[in-house]
Amino acid sequence: MLYHKKKIKSIYNFIHKPNLSLDKNxxxxxxxxxxxxxxxxxxxxxxxxxxxxxxxxxxxxxGDQYAAEYHPVTNKKGWWxxxxxKNKVFDTNKYFIISSNVxxxxxxxxxxxxxxxxxxxxxxxxxxxxSIKDMVSLQIELVNSFGIEKLFCVVGGSMGGMQVLEWGIxxxxxxxxxxxxxxxxxHTAQNIAFHEAGRQAIKADPNWQNGNYNKKNxxxxxxxxxxxxxxHITYMSEEHLETKFGRAKKxxxxxxxxxxxxxVESYLQxxxxxxxxxxxxxxxxxxxxxxxxxxxxxxxxxxxxKAFISNVSRWLLISFxxxxxxxxxESKVIVNSLMANACDVSFVEIESNRGHDxxxxxxxxxxxxxxxxxxxxxx
Length: 379
Known about the structure:
By secondary structure, the protein is α/β, with parallel strands linked by helices. The chain has 2 domains: 15-187 and 298-378, 3-Layer(aba) Sandwich (Rossmann fold); 191-289, Rna Polymerase Sigma Factor, Chain: A. The chain contains 11 helices and 14 strands. It has helices spanning 5-13, 132-145, 159-170, 189-204, 221-235, 238-244, 263-275, 281-293, 304-307, 328-340, 364-378; strands at residues 19-21, 25-27, 33-35, 38-44, 54-58, 84-85, 90-91, 96-100, 115-116, 121-122, 151-157, 175-181, 314-320, 344-350. Strands 1-4-8-5-11-12-13-14 form an 8-stranded mixed β-sheet, sandwiched between helices. A two-stranded antiparallel sheet has the order 2-3. A two-stranded parallel ribbon has the order 6-7. Helix 10 (328-340) links the parallel strand 13 (314-320) and strand 14. Helix 2 (132-145) packs across helix 3 (159-170).
């Protein structure tokens, strides 16, 4: 495989603005703390005088704050650029959109590749364990900085959906609408297993250097690319893989028999190569671990029903028929617990053959459902 070192370095050298730096010791769920963390973010549209039109967009595992614009590192389209903008579903003529990089990320928010202000050295694996709850706690700091008392909506898919759920159980009084998409209240054993396979791939790369690769001027490109390839399989459905690739082959000389004979192999290799241009390996380890440890029922002694007692927000849960990573059954468990508490909840399963990544793709019915839910709340 060929990698582009110049682009890999740019994720560390690029200065992400705007960002909010906190002058405080930020307490974590684990009991540890981070001194003076920063949160990088982007906004789209304008905050109205009542500060009542703000929508917080929560990104998935490998997303970032660049939801509705071309990415400064890869120059690729924003992951929800078709949804956010003037006259789009998240209409910037009406709404003030906030999109931030999560705690532990690698696009400007404090994470493993940040400098520890106490030691003046990169955190690396000395970065403390973080949780989905910690990500949301940092988002609260950002929302507060705008003087916003109540968000109109919090929305996100996959790991972003987990953040939405966390907002729902801890800050329901500060959010009018909650839209968790293609997500679950906890990871299954299978999902944890896929993440662990990816983590093992990263740690098996000799260039990982026990997480100290930047000090050694190396980068675990092969390991991170393999982790991305493993994960990407889970984002697609079998039907879509068959339709897109089937058993189509590439013409290769016999000497390159293991260099991607099938089109699907080349596709996964490309996904891995392009991923290392924009992501940090240690961030991947920390964020996947945060997802694996997430369990909304845990602090309620295993009762998901108790998590939603006295919940005052209006909910819309969305799943996709071909998503086997976070299947519809996972969303229904959450819906049942919300209904058991007489919460205002709607649920939609959308037909799509694109698998888990359906929420990142232009699925017309998905867009219509979102638009209708937002319009109904406005009316």
